[in-house]
Amino acid sequence: MENIEEMANYCLNCKLKPCSEKGCPIKTQIPEFISEIKNNNLKKAYNILQENNICSHICSIICPQEEQCEGSCIRGIKSYPTHIGLLEKYVNEWAEKEGYNYKINIEKSVGKKVAIIGSGPAGIECGFELLKNGYEVDIYEKDSIPGGILIYGIPDFRLSKNYVEEVINKLEEMGAKFITNKELGKDFSLKEISEKYDAVFLGIGAPKSSRYSLYEKELKNIYDSDVFLKAYNENKFLKNLGTVVVIGGGNVAMDSARVAVKMGAEKVKILYRRDRKHMPAREIELDDAIKDGVEFKELIRVVSANEINRKY
Question: At a CB cut-off of 8 Å and minimum separation 6, what does 308 contact?
């Protein structure tokens, strides 16, 4: 606890709260929950986090705090920033260990029903806010398990699926109904569903991945990262991968490279057009990839798949 207390006391409790107002996309009350840690009131700290964000535990694990809340921390200007992510993770782990649950206050029914298309982070948070405010909610998901990218796009070695299941269970306890294996544009149209509900929220994420142009046509054994990661998360490992080359230096590239290792690839190499210092991936992701045996090839711009085949 001493180290956690030191981390919490390091926070200046800024009145302007740049960590919350500028750095956090969902305006987490950061100085407030840290103040409760200082007061050794972890229940209240947890309540503050949960009231604002039902996915608080998940965010403490996967959010890029270095760029967001911690990147806006005043203390980081002349020294290192407050370890906000670690403090949030600590509070959530404490609640999990103690079996403490935040009692969610649900307003009286307003007599309206909303359809949410997509059960990823956007759909989950939208459903949470609507349910709290007295709306009925149906959440449609094209896959068999709710959670969207949290289930199919982030590997289990980075995020335990148990945490996602807990969030889904909480929403169901609040009254949400999950309707799986139903895809917009395939199983129903926007017009059809709009006629059944008072409102529709589209949280379908990015259904089309960005493509890296390699100029050749009819290429084989080239995978988009989302397809590759989903195959891993569904335990449908790709066989006989041999040497795998991952183009890019972000967090998704690190996930893809580590997934390739776990699928049994003989070698995995990351090619990036700049040096490691300028790779956009989080340091922790870069370090974990190295620990898993991934090789880094820096200052390489890929222009041809055939060139990759010749060199790697």
Answer: 245, 271, 302
CA 311 to chain centre: 34
Q: Yes or no: say if 219 and 305 are a contact pair by the CB < 8 Å rule.
A: yes
Reported in sequence order, the residue ranges of the chain that DSSP labels E, i.e. its strands, are 113-117, 136-141, 177-180, 199-202, 243-247, 267-271, 295-297
For the stretch 20-54, pLDDT in tens is 999 999 999 999 999 999 999 999 999 999 999 99
Sheet arrangement for strand 136-141: 177-180, 136-141, 113-117, 199-202
C-alpha 141/C-alpha 160 separation (Å) is 20
Cα gap 43→53, rounded to integer Å? 15
**Alpha-carbon span 189 to 102, nearest angstrom:** 37
C-alpha span between 14 and 21 (Å, rounded): 11
Mean pLDDT throughout 192-217? 81
How many helices (DSSP H) and strands (DSSP E) are in the chain?
14, 7
- Predicted TM-score (pTM) of this structure: 0.89
State phi, psi for 227 to the nearest 5 degrees: -65, -40
Residue 301 confidence (pLDDT)? 84
Contact 130, 199 (CB under 8 A): no
DSSP code of 188?
Answer: B
> Under the phi-then-psi rule, with left for phi > 0, alpha for psi from -120 to 50, and beta for the rest, what region is 19?
alpha
Strand order in the sheet with 267-271: 243-247, 267-271, 295-297
Whether the pLDDT of residue 302 is over 90: the answer is no
Largest Cα span, the chain = 66
Phi then psi dihedrals of residue 202, to 5 deg: -95, 115
Are 117 and 123 spatial neighbours (Cβ–Cβ below 8 Å)?
yes
Domains of the chain, each with CATH number or no CATH:
2-98 (1.10.1060.10), 113-202 (3.50.50.60), 225-311 (3.50.50.60)
